[in-house]
Predict the structure.
Amino acid sequence: MSNTCPVTQPMREDSTQLNESDEPSLSAAKLKVQNVFKHYPVQGRKLVVLEDINLQIHPREFVCLVGASGCGKSTLLNIIAGLVSPSTGEVWVDGQSVTGRPGSDRGMVFQGYTLYPWLTVAQNVAFGLQLRKIPKAEQKERVHYFLNVVKLSQFADAYPKQLSGGMKQRVAIARALANEPAVLLMDEPFGALDAQTKEQMQQFLLELWEQTHVTILMITHDVEEAIYLSQRVYVMSSRPGQIHSEISIRLPKHRELEIKLSPEFVEIKRQVIHDLRGDISAV
């Protein structure tokens, strides 16, 4: 694996505060969702789950999608991942249509770890590489590199049952990153963790993104989590799921947990909650 792969490019050190010059070009979307609808037949009628979803994420952005339970967040993420086909509309990654087609250009991290218990940590990270028939020497190099990135090199020969919940999720993230995806998709990755471990994992993920600057789309119920991690937040309304608003998170790029107590953070939270409106009761 080359040391100049896109995933491992360092972030810029010239500015710690977002400003207009930091905003990515609208013409350079890494991920684009265009006019996506999803409906299912129910007792002879059409149940619309998603209605006219349009969003885009630019290279090296971290974007979160928030909304009430049942608004269609996971369905949308599964459509982007290629696990579910849209009824109409298209999904593009790097200008290539990916509608209804899973691929290594989209890494996926689920809430429930999804590690294979009979495989070691290293074997779990290498699993996707083996399916792609990556040469064994390159597999070994990538596994070593990304286990080091997630600070689990010493657990390479351990099995999932020997790991804590947070460590399991770090292995799942390393497995996704090992395939060097264009976009990392995360579905409530910390939802099953206790509060303290969840905060630790939020800090870990933000540090990981600062180090790798992989493009990330993450869905969450947690408004504070979305604001703390992301550069932009899309707010979804439900029944049917639609993009209600898009909110820029103008906070320092490097963030500590204490920023959640700042007036700027509280004001953004107020705005997101306001946009969630009645759906916030289910968040």
User: Anything to note?
Assistant: The radius of gyration is 19 Å. Residues 1-26, 279-283 have pLDDT under 50 and may be disordered. The beta strands are 31-42, 45-57, 62-66, 88-93, 96-97, 106-109, 183-187, 215-220, 232-237, 242-248. The CA atoms of residues 5 and 180 lie 8 Å apart.
